[in-house]
Amino acid sequence: MAGKHLRLLVYGLIFLALIAALVVYIGRPRPVKVIVKSVDVGLVRDTTANTRAGTIKACNRAGISPPTGGQIASLPVKVGDAVEADQILLELWNADRVAEVSLAQSEAKSARARASQSCVLAEVAAREAKRLRTLRQKGLATEEASDKADGDARAQAAACEAARATTEVSQARLAVARALLSRTQLRAPFAGIVAEINGEVGEFVTPSPVGIPTPPAIDLVDITCLYASAPIDEVDAPEIRVGMPAKISLDAFPEGTFDGKVRRVAPYVLDLEKQARTVDVEVDFADTAATQNMLPGYSADIEVILSERSDVTRVPTEAILEGNKVLLFGSDGLLQERELETGLSNWEYTQVLQGLQAGDRVVVSVDREGVKDGAHAEIETTAGSND
């Protein structure tokens, strides 16, 4: 009986130990799920980006209207048409101006004919005067006849000069008539695409009153030359210089970025209500062929490259905590806080001067509950680095 009781006691103790172990196992803190990325060697850039969405703009864009009012008589183009420089886009009723040009041309032609006649008579008179002077020297002509011929020659020469002056006056009148006619014709200031037309044949157009802008008759855009314009915070603007390399990204082309170069930094600060003070920065596309399918007005972001270093140890910037610290995922599954000395940095990568080496795994899901120094962790995802 004693042996039986002893065995029961041993079994009971074993059972209690198992229960205690199960309670401890069930009650132990579960490891937190974390996403880690590996520290690697690659390119790190120091960049600055726009604070609000920028815009793709055309190098040449003009909203144009006739300089004078009138009734639209002709619209030889339509929206989407490609036009050449100086091509007529819109013409107002101008029959009176056309008639004035025709009249001025006729007057100019008549003036040229009269000038030609007068100058021919002047040449004949000059030859006659010269002949009589020669005969006078030989005693074959009187002094009176020679003097009369000289006077006639001078008179005809003056008439020739007057006729030529009249010709110049008529040419000036013709130029005035043509200028007045041109005010009724809207011509393309450059080659481009007709983006918008405000008006129809038969409608009247009037110039914009002073201080009251009205829609232009024709919106002309040259889409062969595009650039990106975006606002940069005033704090970052002093570091940007014309000629610096940049990256351009567009929502309409999410597959990648485009290389560019800073073409202009605005010489003034924009102070818009309820918004930060910014400076407009313009960036040209390095490859103009890349803009063939782009349209002015697309939203765009720019990232100006201030400096860059290649083949340096780098860590994903999203892994860095306040105070230049990261959580290192150890081989034992424990998270260890590590302080870094850093160099260049952007939104994607930060250069590591001291504190980490290539191959170390750092936690990038730092905002999850329970992710802290000393916590037991379990990898949910491991992500590599891409240049």
Write out key terms for the chains shown.
single chain, 387 residues, alpha+beta, conserved putative lor/sdh protein from methanococcus maripaludis s2 fold, OB fold (Dihydrolipoamide Acetyltransferase, E2P), 4 domains, six-stranded antiparallel barrel, four-stranded antiparallel sheet, 37% strand, elongated
Report on this model:
The chain is an alpha+beta fold. The chain has 4 domains: 27-45 and 309-383, conserved putative lor/sdh protein from methanococcus maripaludis s2 fold (Beta Barrel), CATH 2.40.420.20; 49-60 and 225-307, Efflux pump adaptor protein, beta barrel domain (Elongation Factor Tu (Ef-tu), domain 3), CATH 2.40.30; 66-93 and 184-215, RNA polymerase II/Efflux pump adaptor protein, barrel-sandwich hybrid domain (OB fold (Dihydrolipoamide Acetyltransferase, E2P)), CATH 2.40.50.100; 95-181. Helices cover 28% and strands 37% of the residues. The chain has 3 helices and 20 strands. A 6-stranded antiparallel barrel has the order 3-10-13-12-11-14. Strands 7-6-4-9 form a 4-stranded antiparallel beta sheet, with no helix packed on it. A hairpin with a 3-residue loop joins β17 (341-345) and β18 (349-354). α2 (95-137) runs antiparallel to α3 (143-182). The radius of gyration is 44 Å and the shape is elongated. The protein starts with a helix and ends with a strand. 23% of the residues are buried.
Secondary-structure element series: HEEEEEEHHEEEEEEEEEEEEEE
Average pLDDT score? 88
Rg result:
44 Å
Number of strands: 20
Q: What is the assigned CATH homologous superfamily of the largest domain?
A: Efflux pump adaptor protein, beta barrel domain
Q: What would the CATH topology of the largest domain be?
A: Elongation Factor Tu (Ef-tu), domain 3
Strand content: 35-45%
Name of the top-level CATH class of the largest domain: Mainly Beta
How far apart, in Å, are the first and last alpha carbons? 78 Å
Secondary-structure class = alpha+beta
Cross-sheet strand order for the largest sheet: 3-10-13-12-11-14
The total tally of domains equals 4
Q: Return the CATH architecture of the largest domain.
A: Beta Barrel
Weakly predicted, low-confidence segments: none
Overall helicity: 25-40%
Shape: elongated
Number of H- or I-type helical stretches:
3
Biggest sheet record: 6 strands, antiparallel, barrel
